[in-house]
Amino acid sequence: MDVSDGFIPIVAVFYAVFHPTEGTKIIHQVPENSIVTTSHQRTKVVKNVSRLSMDSTNSDSRQRQEDEDEDDGLFNFDTVKNYVIPKPQLCNRLISFKINKYKVIGYPVNMENPRYSRNSFSFNFCFVFPYDKGDISPYEPAIKRMGQMFQVLEEQNFMLSKLDKDNSFFKKGSTGLSSNGASSDISNNINIGIDLESYTNATSMSPAASNDATVNAPGHSKTKRISLSSIESLVHQIYQDLNNYSECCIPLDSSNSVDIKLFPILPAPINLKAYQVPIATVKLNSLVDVNWDPTMVKILPFINGLNSVKRISELANANYLLTKQCIQHLMHYKCIEIIDIFQFSNIYAPTNHIGDFLKINGKMAEECQAYVVTSESNIEGSSYFSHTPSTYHNNNTSSFHGSNSVSPYSTAGLKYDSVSSSYPKPSSSYLSKSPKTVGNSPNISVNVKVPTKTTLFYLYRSLNQGQTVKEWYIQHRKLLTSIDIRRFINFGVLRGIIYRVHSYPLVNSLTRSIESGDLAQYDEFLGSYKEKKSKKKVKVKHTDESLLKTKVNEQTIKTDNKRKVSFSYSQSNLHDARKSGFSSREVILENDSEDEDEEEEEGEGHLVHPRSRTISRNSFASSTGLKYASGGEENAIEDSSDDDNEVSEEKEQEKAQLLDLVKMLKGYQSFDSICTELQKSRFEVEKMIEKLGSYNSVSS
Amino acid sequence: MSFNLPNPSLLGVLLVISTHSGPQLAYKYPPSLNESSNIPKFKDVNNWHYSSEEEDDDDDELYGQQSSSDDSDQEFTKRDLYEYSSGTNSAWDTHHIDYYLGTKLDLLSFLDEQNQRRSYLNKVKRAATANKSSTKKTTAKTEVSNTDNTIYGIDPAYLCEMLAPPKKMCNTRFELTIENKVFLGLPIHKYDDGHWRKPSEKNKSYHDHDGDIDNELAEDPKPDDSPSKPRLSLNMFHLVFIMNPPMIESNYRIDEMFHYVISRLSLVLRYEQSKHDYICDQVKSILTIKDQYTDEEELQTKLLEKSSLCKLIHDCYNSITTSKIANLLINGKLRSFQIPIKTEFHSLPDSTVPYIPGSYLSSTTNLLNNTGLINIGETSRYGHTFNAFREDDEEEDVIMYFALLLLDEPESMIRDIKTDKQSNMANFIRMVDSRQSLFKLSARLKLDIMQIKSFAYHLIYWRRARIIQPLSTRSVFIVSPMAPISLKLIDDIVLFKEKFPTLPSLPHFLKLLSPQSRKPQQFASIIPSKDHRESYLQALAWLIRFGYVTQLQTFIWLKISRNIKIKVEEDLENENLNKKKKKSLTTSTDNTFKPTDNTSKRDQGKHSLVTSPPEQPLKTTLPTVTLTEEDDTIILDPGRASNLERKWINKIIFEECKLSSELTTVFYKLLKYMNGKSSLELLLLKENISILELRKLLFEIEDYIISVRHW
């Protein structure tokens, strides 16, 4: 399939009608004589004469075209007559067919009216394309619309039928389509009539046409003067404009025009998953206008290559499903790409494309150098920081790297590389272009060493299926100075030279019950197990929660400034916040899984959505707190003096979470997916799973 | 785009004939072709994978029957309502593209549904095994009852006129689109001389179809003029496939259908017609049957019973719509047709590209890329991005170094392909061992290499085997990034248990293959004892077959360190300065990987990056940026090394590592493979080098090698 926006050019356009006496025939075609008709030889001389009246530019191009097709044309019209104007029952739909090496598309219109000489009039604007050159679907809706428009115009004004100089489409003498109309027509159009007309000014409309209009449609004549003077000029212009500009805008009269613009058709986006992370490839902010969907505008600041779809919806306080839709739209228009949540517990490994890093004249490697380089100070300051929501707006160039790297580093850095050969001091631009770096770095005289390409390659290749980023970092720490690890990984993932290895928890007890073929039993077993377990665990769990509530506010303020690279899982910030709202759901779900009454469970599952929407506001507050996972434990004891209500709520809620967890385990979801859904760190999730028994962690 | 997923988009098949009395619709399948009948498309649903997956087949089939028939069933109607209201019904149909595009819902509701679906299927399965036959009957009934004569709202008479094109449009590809329905076919028209095939150069008149069919048919060009029966004056017959491909994939799906099914089938029919007057006879019998039976339902069953042409159209439709192989009995001869499915990938598809769960990921796929035997999956959303390199000219024979992995049990396979149990083919299938290369196999079977190859190709093309590197405990395996864990593990756990009751469970096995805190290890490291070796290897084959596991291969480059370069530089300077300059300028074929422009670098003896900004000016500004001196060079294609590169290489082997003469020969044997494209595993198979030698060599030149492991 073609990737470019280039459309397959039109080979020819023709206008055909069903003539009352001569049958289906082509009235006009562009380029001329491209389609062979039986009358072709006879008319050729006349047409050559008429062509002389054309302005020179057009006739030139035509001449060329004609010379090529002179002998055979594209195909013989007689063969396809019945497809151009099919039986009336098949008309008024988009019809295309293959003939020789061409595909002809048209929208044959059949209209009935007692005034027509056969009580009906049929016409078709057909477009000819090469058959196997590619996708012509962008034209289809336009052609259909055009056919429908002329159908209406014909209905109102006989716009097409009256253009015939012999007036042969109308019954003789019927409805006052007088012979003088026809005769004046003839007198005006001797020999070169129509061609000449097409290039005269629209105001000097042929009297015949105006006559017809008055005569045929008395009601409309005063208010609406259809000035379509020539189909030929229309067809010709459509052909020219669409091939040259992919659009056309041809006025027919004061209120009607043929407006066509071709749009490439892109594949429908697939449904994203909650844990996937969108990363912008264009400056999304610059695209916003007033007509944008409010949800889209709302979520935009949070698309920063760090937040997962789910988290974006929480941060923006937007419904998850809507957020997902919005992001899918962005993906559809290639504004974003999808990466994974960056964590130091992730595993990455090289793909078969890793060799590309060395190829293409080292271009990828250069871009990588430019993109990943950082000074030590930057690790704390701008590089990790500049893409958090708070600074996102300040930094105009921060919509970051996709395939056309546009981040402050890469643009500046690229310049540094490419321009360097001709200018001795381009390096200054590096710094001037990234004010953040300058401003934020406390230590002014840091010497940033750009890692060599060989080093970068070595680092990429040393990633493997068995090592987490953390382990890998420790092993290669020396080489990783002045490399921003997150950017290093993202670059590799986006360029397809490394891939994320997902890990899946597979619980042994689940495996056993599947093997014994009784999943239902497993549910029951778990149900009872959970009852017991959750009672025991309430205390611990609860303390975490209350801590969260009390500390949220001050943490929100702090974290923005102090955000660091830490080896704790970056998801740990997503503490659970589904609170009170879930108690009712939980009860029902519990019952259901025990009863195996699926209908009800299903229904409930749906009802829950609106509720979770309101809850997301809570999670917004809590999600900014970054360091609870580590700091929480000690303080926990102090806060454990809540009232009974609270306790039971916590308990219910934990049960709900466990249920969710079990569901996801049964669905064999990856850790990323589970963590995102439960809004817990991997560490916490692992603990939860351990409660259910031993499990295997599989990296895939 | 979802080109990786099968999407035949086939709505129905029409047989249009043209006699002296004009065009006529002889047969159509399915009996009712209108918009309403196709919306819940659960009819005859089967799994399109492999026949081995009977389990799945059953599920789907039974569910399908249930859903299309049991309207009285309270539960179903309720479900149905729910599904339509939430618009997710298609998301559960394994033949619908939505199934692969991920859920529209949030994860938890999706899982709820999935769970519920599963237990529902189980219930149905249990219930339905009892009264299987009865459900089948009701299905047929409902199918026929809503028969409406029009074809998508078009009177068949008018449509037939359009589908019986003028002679000039015959004997070539025919395509007619009416709104979103594509009518695709290869109308076969009698030639003026009354023959169905051009007496002489008939092969040349066809451009649209594969040559091989015609060749195959060309053996006997003379029509059999013996039939004594009265002839029907048949002028043309046209097997029309009605399709509704998604707009964006339209061309692709239509081409696929035409190329793989329509053209081939139509030409076979033409052959039968010209030799045995097959179509004429069949049409006559169809018309008689149509006269005899007026009841629509009875008519349909009789047609299928009595007319082999109707039967084959019926079979063809049912197999192709479910993306299975259509094994059709055409005038008593078995012919197979399929639209190949894409289950082989050489690189990992983007996370936004859907693919068939259980697809295989391996760069060995490239070997078959040009053979046309397999369809390689797309890896990006917007079409082809990766052009596989052509390995060598000898690639045809490379396949012999590989082993076949059967995708089904040998005996059932022999049964399926209906070959004689004692035939070479059957023996071959029984002997196939995923641990032995085809070369070894040919030696064991004493069969010609060509024959072995053709057997192998046959099995690969017909989805019964795939090419893998011979399994060995020394190879390194990982859980494939494309492993269908979320989608299929729950079913496969059971299958695995049935197959290998004594081995650890499937999840445990996968865990063994996902190393924790260390690099992936040889397969041998997870085998507990020698006694387990056999069964573990079998399990491994199973895991590869179901797409869970893929092999890691090692790819190496030569790395020239700075020291070497300086030494070579000095040598050269000692020789002749002027001469050197000339040489290096002319030999700058750019196949090395260098930090900067090659020529300038070579001219600059110092290796400081002259073309990049000097360090001085940087220091005036705040954090100084330095391009660290590029000290190493990686040679991309040592097979076509430049003079300078050769000098480097020589320096390494003769002076730095001081390789022994044996190792030097090994080194030169391997040199051209040190390009990061050919895996060591493969060249061990290809070049006659022992592992020991290779190890020795790699150990010796360790410092000058950079290696990568991927599939």
From TrEMBL, chain A:
Biased composition (Polar residues): 615-625
GO molecular function, one term: GTPase activator activity
One Gene Ontology term from the biological process aspect of the record: positive regulation of autophagy
Superkingdom of the source species: Eukaryota
InterPro entries, alphabetized: NPR2-like (IPR009348)
Protein name: Nitrogen permease regulator 2
Comp. bias regions, Acidic residues: 589-603, 635-647
Coiled coil segments of this chain: none
Provenance organism: Spathaspora passalidarum (strain NRRL Y-27907 / 11-Y1)
Region (Disordered): 49-73, 589-654
Entry-linked Pfam families: NPR2
Family the UniProt entry places it in: Belongs to the NPR2 family.
One annotated Gene Ontology cellular component of this protein: vacuolar membrane
Range of residues in the leader sequence: none
Automatic annotation (TrEMBL), chain B:
Endpoints of the signal sequence: 1-26
Basic and acidic residues composition-biased segments: 200-212, 219-228
Sections of the chain in a coiled coil: none
Subcellular location as annotated: Vacuole membrane
Composition bias type Acidic residues, residue spans: 53-62
Keywords from the named record: Meiosis, Signal
Gene Ontology cellular-component terms listed: GATOR1 complex; vacuolar membrane
Alphabetical list of Pfam families matching this protein: HTH_NPRL3, NPR3
Major localization class: membrane
InterPro entries listed in its UniProt record: HTH_NPRL3, Npr3
Region (Disordered): 51-77, 200-229, 581-616
Membrane topology qualifier: Peripheral membrane protein
Highest taxon of source: Eukaryota
Sequence ranges assigned to domain GATOR1 complex protein NPRL3 C-terminal HTH in this UniProt record: 642-706
GO BP of this protein: cellular response to amino acid starvation; meiotic cell cycle; negative regulation of TORC1 signaling; positive regulation of autophagy; TORC1 signaling
Keyword Phosphoprotein: no
Task of the protein: Mediates inactivation of the TORC1 complex in response to amino acid starvation. Required for meiotic nuclear division.
Family under the similarity heading: Belongs to the NPR3 family.
Official protein name in the record: Nitrogen permease regulator 3
Lineage: Eukaryota, Fungi, Dikarya, Ascomycota, Saccharomycotina
